[in-house]
Amino acid sequence: MKPIISINSLSKTFTSGFNALEKVSLDINKGEIFALLGPNGAGKTTLISIITGITIPTSGSVKVNNYDVIKDPIKTRSLIGLVPQEVAIEPFETVLSSIKFSRGLFGKPQDSLYINSILKQLSLWEKRNTKIIELSGGMKRRVLIAKALSHEPLVLFLDEPTAGVDVELRKDMWGIIKSLKYSGVTIILTTHYIEEAENLADRVGFINNGQISLIEEKQQLINKMGKKTLSIHIQNAIQNIPYKLKKYKLEISNSGNTLTYNYDINSEKTVITALLNDLSKENIKLKDIKSKQSSLEDIFINIVGK
After folding, report:
1. What is the largest CA-CA distance in the chain?
2. pTM over 0.85
3. Per-residue pLDDT tens for 80-122?
4. Domain 3-223: what homologous superfamily?
5. Topology annotation, domain 227-305
């Protein structure tokens, strides 16, 4: 598949001498949701700013749909929609006029059918004549997305799209993002909610200290790097691990009523059967057993920690 965004050896050093990006190379495929994860100051915002033409790189290149962002800034900018983290919209404009204004900035002719379809898709139709100052925070974020889509871009950048909204609105926004993907828009998502990336992304990229440390399909990443935790609830509490069980590196919790065993899901032998047999030999009676696979958040913390 031909990438819609191609980043080659991209670096950015500010006048202060700070290296925000160092030889970043990345391809983003057409029609995918790509989640870019990293701690504060990792380089996420700088990378997005360069792709969207806000910041000039020190070296390297970026192409959007085969157009160079430096040589063809007007063309590449017209292919991109950007939803910033900060909600900054004309407060006394109506929703409809604000979206129409954004479309006009790109020299696009009026298209009421298209604008109306966006309003309906984002559940803004009933609010189209409402002044933005009167909207809730969640509705204002929908307006930001509508404005970013107003000129029919091929690529949509969402910078912390659900920051500051409650859980119910967040999941509602997830549905909107998925529907945008199904309509053919390529989405690049930055988020501090790892659950958000786990729910939405096709691929995940980790950036830290200005460098891409890992790019992987989400499920393959979880399968490849994930761990499983086996929680063994026992009938009678114990305070110390018996000597013959030390090799399993069990952890005691829940006032001695739970034993935890961590293992690699890709290991050929998880030795669970042997563990259960040895528990029986030590006269430790089981009450319940539960297993849990590590999440993307666990993997993220592990990568950043390293």
Report:
1. 78
2. no
3. 999 887 777 889 999 999 999 999 999 999 999 999 999 998 8
4. P-loop containing nucleotide triphosphate hydrolases (3.40.50.300)
5. Alpha-Beta Plaits (3.30.70)
